[in-house]
Design brief:
- By secondary structure, the chain is mainly α.
- The chain has 4 domains: 89 residues, 434 Repressor (Amino-terminal Domain), CATH 1.10.260; 114 residues, no CATH class; 119 residues, no CATH class; 78 residues, no CATH class.
- Helix content is 70%, strand content 0%.
- It has 24 helices and no strands.
- The longest helix has 25 residues.
- About 4% of the residues have low confidence.
């Protein structure tokens, strides 16, 4: 299997070749998912009808995807990439460089993180002794807050030095400190996983997950080990490994039940269990199983009630009533039921003519993801102004996350394409994410 960089290089070389033959536009950062899908399909020497048969859609739907008339859902992107024997990042075009990278420099820390992940059990020598563990823990708390709010640009440079110091304490510190150091090290590795995934460096993301598992195992905290399993299941889901992800999540729930029998769960355990249920709901939505998805959402609601219907940051799960609503809307949009999703937002609103939105204190990664989802749904029902408004809301909440999110880029690209005379504001937004009009 080609690596992310190698696969993208293949596609970009093919774009150049096809351009010389006069069959496709020149390679640029402005390539849309439809452009990349067409190139990938031709690379595999498949007709639109043959590809359509492999993913159980109509040939005209494939043509609409390639022309940009329709926008692919995450589940469809996975199905198409699997049928084409490419990673999903080839169709989404990740990682994105160009103008966004020139301003944020957000990928600059990636080479250092790759080296740190490789040398996880033989860390760099330190010129001075590691700082006290409470000081290191406080810095990890800061990193975790940046991660939850999707502030990846300021978070990235903090990771290599803190991981190095924590590793020294974990491997060579006093017995009383080692387990605690490993616990915080697992959190730091989780931040690496999140940064790498969101920026499109999926191989690094997967390596970071292995490091989370390693550190969690040595932390002597079962809930941290459940958390690492939850993260692995999420990676399986992103790669379209639905049966494996389902088995993983169900096994984790069974194990959690044995860990705290008779459902005498602590609030922390409830947060972990609720997160597992929400991940199961997304999985079933991806497989277009609405009844199962709704069942898991209802179970998550019951778990939230047991926890007092409070939004919690326990184990960084962001579990509670707000996240359940976000996942409910996401699941409906994922299954193509955009009108019902938008109707549900109106139903939840306390003000007539308005729609529900996550409270202001919701973590930025969750809120921005919600607004990006809703923008996609509004575009599907031809509410262009509403779609752009939600993209702007996502940017305000979490600019790093929005700027590098494949769905946000595809939505703004579609808005630019269907606008005969894009407003200056829309054009500027397109330039900000790295898409320019010509």
């Amino acid at each position: 299997m080609a690596t992310t960089g190698a696969a993208l290089a293949i596609i970009r070389t093919l774009i150049r070749v096809l351009h010389r033959e006069g069959t496709d536009p020149p390679m640029s950062e402005n390539q849309t998912l439809g452009d990349r899908l067409r190139i990938a399909r031709r690379t595999r020497k498949l007709s639109a009808a043959q590809l359509a048969q492999k993913v159980a859609i109509s040939p005209s739907y494939v043509q609409k995807l390639e022309s940009g008339a329709r926008k692919a859902s995450p589940s469809l992107i996975l199905a198409l990439s699997k049928a084409l024997h490419f990673g999903p990042e080839v169709l989404t075009g990740q990682p994105y460089y160009g103008e966004p990278e020139a301003e944020d420099g957000i990928h600059a820390v990636i080479p250092e993180l790759r080296r740190i992940m490789l040398c996880y059990d033989t860390p760099d020598d330190l010129e001075i002794a590691p700082r006290a563990l409470p000081v290191l823990a406080s810095e990890v708390d800061q990193i975790a807050a940046l991660r939850r709010d999707a502030r990846y640009a300021p978070m990235g440079p903090l990771l290599p030095p803190i991981i190095t110091e924590l590793t020294h304490v974990a491997l060579g510190g006093r017995n009383g400190d080692q387990a605690t150091a490993f616990w915080h090290l697992a959190r730091a590795y989780r931040a690496v996983n999140s940064l790498a995934h969101k920026m499109g460096h999926h191989d690094l993301s997967n390596t970071a997950l292995e490091r989370v598992r390693w550190a969690a195992h040595h932390s002597a905290d079962p809930l941290m080990q459940f958390t690492s399993g939850y993260l692995v299941a999420g990676a399986m889901l992103r790669q379209g490994a639905y049966p494996s992800a389902r088995r993983k999540l169900l096994a984790l729930r069974d194990e959690l039940e044995r860990f705290q029998p008779e459902r005498s769960f602590t609030d922390d355990a409830l947060a972990v269990d609720g997160a597992l249920l929400l991940k199961l709901a997304v999985l079933e939505a991806r497989e277009n199983n609405p009844e199962r998805a709704n069942t898991y959402l209802q179970e998550a609601g019951e778990v939230a009630r047991l926890a007092g219907n409070r939004d919690s940051l326990a184990y960084e799960m962001s579990f509670g009533p707000t996240n359940i609503r976000i996942h409910e809307v996401h699941s409906m949009i994922d299954m193509g039921d955009t009108e019902q999703a938008l109707a549900r937002l109106a139903e939840w609103s306390l003000v007539a003519g308005r729609e529900w939105a996550p409270p202001a204190n919701t973590v930025g990664e969750r809120s921005s993801h919600h607004f990006i989802d809703v923008a996609s749904a509004k575009l599907a029902v031809n509410d262009r102004a509403g779609a752009f408004d939600d993209l702007k809301r996502a940017r305000k909440v979490a600019p790093n996350h929005t700027r590098f999110h494949p769905s946000a880029r595809e939505t703004v690209s579609a808005l630019l394409r269907v606008s005969a005379h894009p407003s200056n504001e829309l054009s500027a937004f397109g330039s900000w994410v790295g898409i320019t009009t010509s």
